[in-house]
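My main concern about presentation is that the manuscript never shows what a single data entry looks like. For the editor and my fellow referees, an illustration may be useful. For illustration, here is how one protein appears when written out as sequence plus structure tokens:

***
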Amino acid sequence: MPDVHRDGAGPVIDTDDEALVALGQAAGHLLAARDEVEYSVRAARRHGATWRQIGDELGISKQAAQQRYGRHDLRAPCLTCASLPEASACAVCGDPGGDVG
């Protein structure tokens, strides 16, 4: 099967099976990119970035950024890490011991 990676104009697709493989790869990249953006929003908020700054970086309004990513506002406690022992790091927000300040 030919390589289905991007070659400037898009993936090389010669068959239905290759089209499905390319679709699966694209979906995987999209999910990974979404995860990276959400992680970056959490990190930016943790380090004091405003919703306006985050919105500017994403090319959206501050209101849209807050509506889309507000559940990651780390000025409120992370529900997952709030119950962890003080020395444990949260797998969700990465903060040690539930202190999300």
Remarks:
- The radius of gyration is 19 Å.
- The CA atoms of residues 45 and 73 lie 6 Å apart.
- Residues 16-76 form one domain.
